[in-house]
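Researcher: Please translate sequence to structure tokens.
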Amino acid sequence: MKYVREYRDEDLVRTAVDEIRKGITQPWVIMEICGGQTHSIVRYGLDQLLPSEIELVHGPGCPVCVTSLEIIDKALAIASRPEVIFTSYGDMLRVPGSGRDLFSVRARGGDVRVVYSPLDAVKIARENPEREVVFFAIGFETTAPANAMSVLQAQNLGLKNYSVLVAHVCVPPAIRAILGSPENRVQGFLAAGHVCAVMGYWEYTPLAEEFSVPIVVTGFEPLDIAQGILMTVKHLEAGKAVADNAYKRAVTYEGNKPAQKVIQRVFMDCDRKWRGIGIIPGSGWCLRPEYAAFDAENRFEVSDIQPEESPVCIAGLILQGLKKPLDCPAFGNPCSPEKPLGATMVSSEGACAAYYSYGRG
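Model: Translation complete:
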């Protein structure tokens, strides 16, 4: 609780904002990559406290939001099979596919269960040897070590009825795609602290140098974010294109090496389609060939599902920082958390959900 109180201290936040105001001389566009940071910014009104020269735009750092429609529909097809126990984190159950979600599958008799760890899914597989148990392995680099460990544990236990539907995505290729776009407006980034706690921030140094932008690792409390913006603005004003760390209590440059080794043992780089954005080369992880027996996509032969996105939802533009939730004509009506058209409205880290929950617009 000490750190929670300290990093939500209003006076400390205002002091950081005042320092930003004193040091800024021109407009800057800064993107917070993580959806958790977006929610903190909107919840605590940080964007309204900041000087008008700073525009914050929201990035693709919500793993639920960027999980492609194809993967969601594959999950729905697998979960609908009578022999399957489909396990997932709870925030995936209401993400809409082409016409339904995992809650709908469960309402129609599908055995869909919420778990808090992939190791819980392994336990379910051990307890139900006559059933196929599938874990929905979504997320950025943060969740990858535990997902990889579940595959290794299932292998060590000799479980033939456990598999994972892998939808892992990685942050650095997404930053590269944003910066490489001819429509890009972003001049500085707040990197996601929990991702960097696992991976470190050594991958960001060449990106910062190549595209001449500062990238600052930032935490999630109001003071964390204010300090991250302050550090970013200082680098922008000084013309420094560097990767820096404003979240030193949790992040080192090298990151968690044992966790990285587990990831590298089980997963390998692959191209990945991001919802509303499209394919970003080398932006995902998939199972290595030696773990192909645990690949749910191949086991249940769902690789040929190719749905189409809603033409109304602009989530892809929001995730690229090109639009904001209030720019969407469907925001609030017909799109709401109760009846979402896109994942950015239903996810606990989605930008649209943040604007809706905290009364913006």
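Researcher: Any highlights?
Model: The mean pLDDT is 93.
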